[in-house]
Amino acid sequence: MMTPPVKSGPRYNGMIQSDKVRVIDQDGENIGVMYTREAIEQAAEVGLDLVEVSPNADPPVCKFLDVGKFRYEAQKKANAQRKTQKTQEIKEIKMRPNIDDHDYDVKMRNVNRFIEDGDKVKVTLRFRGRELSHQQLGMALLRRVQDDTAEIAKIEAYPRMEGRQMLMVLSPK
Question: For the segment 132-144, what is each residue's pLDDT rounded down to a tens digit?
């Protein structure tokens, strides 16, 4: 035996389970509380469906609408929201502990730009060879990055060692 597909979207007409509902007509006028059967009949007279717009209210609020049009509008609204939504990316900036001032400035300009665009920034400090024995230089550099971005970013992950690299994650305030 196959189970029927699960209906998504609002309940309408025969799917409304409560005995009484608060009814709003097609013009937005509040008709009042009535039996669901009566409300469905009145909606059919106007050539529309009785659609449950607020199922959690007591009694549920229903409206005279065209179900197909209502679903189409809801789908259009959801698509528009999805389009305007910004996903937060993680951008990575790689440095070395003995970075020169000019190179540091260029990297910091990129960090600031990424944070202003609303992205998170992962600052990776790679140690090579004997640099690994001078981790305090790396910590000092990451502290400098932290101070330079203090106004626009907060630290999401404090500096930590992972193998031969030190990581820190900044996110927009």
Answer: 898 999 999 999 9
